[in-house]
Amino acid sequence: MDNEVKFGFEDTPTRWAVCFNGECQAAEQCLRHLAATLAPKDATQTMCVTPLAEGYGERCELFWQRRAERVAYGFGHFFDVVLKDDYTSIRKQLTSYFHGSRQYYWYLRGERGLTEEQQRYVRGVFADRGYTDLPDFERYENRYVVRSL
Fold this sequence. Notes:
Low-confidence stretches: none
Oligomer: single chain
Strand content: 5-15%
Number of strands: 3
Radius of gyration: 19 Å
Shape: elongated
Mean pLDDT: 90
Number of helices: 4
């Protein structure tokens, strides 16, 4: 895994405000400002922070610290060591955690990245059933992570 931090405008949730104020004292550390600088040139509208925000231009109330996480992808091979009797209960618990089978399979196959918190949860579900000697996830990337509020 390289140390490059990956982030693009497409990584922001649909209804997450970005900030175009390059004069703000906190702009270089703010993920909202970075997202705004990465907006596609053909984007005609997006949610954004307005000058009415408390502290706008200094360190406003919507400041979002850039903090990279080690995001993991793919854990289907975890099931290689799972007994048949445990498979269904583990899958059901993870499907519930990921809010449905569609999202579960995206994470399982590595189509979406797991935050550090999600990685702990997935490993914990397996550990609760005695599977503590699991392999690594299929791959890792350093990414800025935006969680919906």
